[in-house]
Amino acid sequence: MTGRRAVVVFFAAILLTAWSTLAQDQDPDGFVALQPESIVPETGEGMTRLWIKGGVDEPGIYVVRNTFPAGVTSRPHFHSEDRYATVIKGTWWVALGPDAAVYDPDSMVPMREGSFVIHPAGGIHYDGAKDEEVIVQIIGMGPVTTTSVEPDN
Questions:
Q1: Can you name the residues that pair with 127 across neighbouring β-strands?
Q2: Which helix (H) or strand (E) holds 6?
Q3: This prediction's pTM
C-alpha cells in the first residue's frame, strides 16, 4: 500500500469512527443530521469555532470547524493528543515540526482546499489564513490540552 493510499484509508477510518460515535450519541435510530444554524459558534483568538461533536475537555471524539479570517494565524503550540485536520475552504498555511518552535510566517507552507494534515501529539506547529478566509475541520480525542511554545508577552 502506498503512503498516500495508507493516509486515505486511515482518514476514512477516522471519519467512520467519528460518524459512528455521533450516531450513537445523538439518535436512538443511529442517524445524525445537523444543519449549520443548529451549531452555535464560539469566537476567540481571532477565529470562530463550530463545535459539531464533543469538546477538548470531554472524553471521546470531538469534531470542530475552525474559521480563520484573512490574516489570522495561531502561534507555535502543540497538543497532548493527535489531531486530524481537513481543509474545507481556502488555503490553510501551516508550519510543522521542530523549526515551528519560532514563529516565522514566511516559512509557512500552503495547504489547499481538500488537504489533510496530521498534528501528532507533542508536534509543534502553527497555522492560519493569509489572504483569504479558511475553514478547517479538526477531529481528535479528548480530553486534550494545548501548550504554547512561546512565552506570553
A1: 94
A2: helix 3-26
A3: 0.75
Phi, psi (5° rounding) for residue 20?
Answer: -60, -45
The DSSP bridge partners found for residue 86 are 116, 137
CB atoms within 10 A of CB 85: 22
Question: In terms of C-beta density within 10 A (0-12 exposed, 13-18 middle, 19 or more buried), how is residue 82 classed?
Answer: middle
Residues 10, 84: contact at Cβ < 8 Å? no
Contacts of 3 (CB under 8 A, 6+ apart): none
> Rounded to the nearest 10 degrees, how much is the dihedral formed by the CA atoms of 10, 13, 19, 23?
-150
Distance from C-alpha of 21 to C-alpha of 85, rounded to nearest angstrom:
18
Chain segment 46-89, per-residue pLDDT in tens:
899 998 889 999 999 999 999 999 999 999 999 999 999 999 99
